[in-house]
Amino acid sequence: MISQKGVITSQFDYDALLFLSAASISNSTQRLAINYLTFSLKLNGLWDKLNAIYPFVGGTATTHKFNLKNPLDTNAAFRLSFVGGWTHSASGVLPNGTNAYANTFCVNSLLNSAHISFYSRTNSTGLFNDIGNATNTVPNSVLILRYLDRTYGHINQSGDLFATNTNSTGYYITSRTASNIIKTYKNNSIIINGTTLSTSIPTNTFTISAWQSSNGVFQRYSNRECAFATIGTGLTDSESSILYNIVQTFQTILNRQV
């Protein structure tokens, strides 16, 4: 359980244990971090709003592939399939920027309620898709953390939304909560507050660190290390703030916060 100060007792959450067992995580600090994360998401009403949670603990491709929400080794459970050159370590997953991406096998289901998030430990600039189900046609859903010193955040839309950003490290969330409400958050602050309308739901699956062209070829490979990512329904300002605080504490437990 978690006290009012967020301190975890010796009791482990059932879903945390399922994940730890599937990923064969024995490190005590990593087990504590996953237990804290799971308890905190449930305690704050966020667990059911997240369809895929990728905590990237364990330091290997095998441990990093599992979805905390459903830690089965199947496409239907949204476990990751890593393609191309990746470096797996205790700090997260690092793509090589030339041919690496991870397929989540997850797609949007709601037009006006969706979010994606990405915790970056790398400051770099370039036209990289960090997470999304974007194509070079529209509509798309995508987080591009830093291109031309701008952050782009889209959910089920055709028009561009961006904000000035000169450092791509930190925790980013893009969330749509209505047909005309879309926001992007960086480290607990709103950096994009848009009214661009949702148009339709992209049909391709979400990928991490690349996107698909209209003929299915992957491109726009990222070189930014990811230490956490989620896909789910839309998050309000309050929910996004709570999620940031939980994730930042999770990263601090693992000594990899930025």
Structure, explained:
This protein has 258 residues and is an alpha+beta fold. It has helices spanning 14-22, 28-43, 61-64, 237-253; strands at 50-54, 81-83, 86-89, 92-95, 101-103, 114-120, 131-132, 140-147, 150-157, 162-164, 170-178, 181-186, 189-194, 207-208, 211-212, 218-219, 226-232. The protein has one domain (14-253): Jelly Rolls (Sandwich), CATH 2.60.120. Strand 3 (86-89) and strand 4 (92-95) form a beta hairpin. It starts with 13 loop residues before the first helix and ends in a 5-residue tail after the last helix.
Keyphrases for this structure?
258 residues, Jelly Rolls, seven-stranded antiparallel beta sheet, six-stranded antiparallel beta sheet, 17 strands, 18% helix, globular, disordered N terminus
Give the helix/strand layout:
Layout: H1 14-22, H2 28-43, E1 50-54, H3 61-64, E2 81-83, E3 86-89, E4 92-95, E5 101-103, E6 114-120, E7 131-132, E8 140-147, E9 150-157, E10 162-164, E11 170-178, E12 181-186, E13 189-194, E14 207-208, E15 211-212, E16 218-219, E17 226-232, H4 237-253
Antiparallel strand pairs: 1-17, 2-5, 3-4, 5-14, 6-11, 6-17, 7-8, 7-14, 8-9, 9-10, 11-12, 12-13, 15-16
